[in-house]
LysR family transcriptional regulator
Amino acid sequence: MFEIDALRLLVAVAETGSFTKAAARLNYTQSAVSRRIAALEQQTGGPLLERLPRGVRLNPAGRTVHRHAMEVLDRLSRAERELAVLHAGHGGLLHIGAFATANISLVPTALRALQDARPDVEVVAVEGPTDTLMARLADGVLDLAIVSDYPSGLPSADGVTTTALCEDELFVALPRGHRLAGAGTIDLRELRDEAWLQNAYGDRPTMLADAFARAAFAPRKITRIAEWSGKFGYVAAGLGVALVPSLAAWAVPDELVLCSLTDPALRRTVHVALPAAPLPAALKLRDLLRDAVD
């Protein structure tokens, strides 16, 4: 409704008590100040200043507009400072996203290092599947995302670049009482009679489906479970087995055993995804993520 410059002029006039002094402070002519204040008074529906023999002062309506103007100008000033710090890479908000198992250890380790190195950077973190995170990067909602090519490959998004961070081996989780729990390494065909717990399967190509095809058998049953806590619970109850990435090993309950699989293709690649013009703080976090996997 009101122009920011007009609000600044009103504040300056109120502080100096003079159109002439306000003009000198803000590098305007006295006539320009008079015109802008008159236009502001027209917008607000009446006079904002009492014209005195020597100078001016705010009337009740002027004090009301002045109070709100001070609040607006203060918030704009803080926004300018935050943006300047943000674009200089010294602080501000950093919006990041990651898939679920990256948040078990990898991301918290890097964020703790970022907190130590850049305490003035405030991180806003969200969790989601890779395709959602890539879309949010393309839309400018996120400044960085940790994504992977599991279970169905790495999607692309306009203006988003990805850099491989690490390879993540996929283990099979078995209950401790399973006949193969002590085997260490298992051929997938030894699990042909098991039910499998998988979030995505059948609606599009997946890494697990490709592994079954290489092993020349179809799974007896697929139970669609999305959350890792649910998968772990089903495995512990003997209701199926599940692929578990090494990034999640730290969170696996004691009731389960992780075994390697002989298929070398059963591993995923974790990537850092960035927009075309990444923030300096995002580049710093990318470097700390690399340190976390070394």
Q: What stands out?
A: The mean pLDDT is 92. The longest strand covers residues 160-175. The radius of gyration is 30 Å.
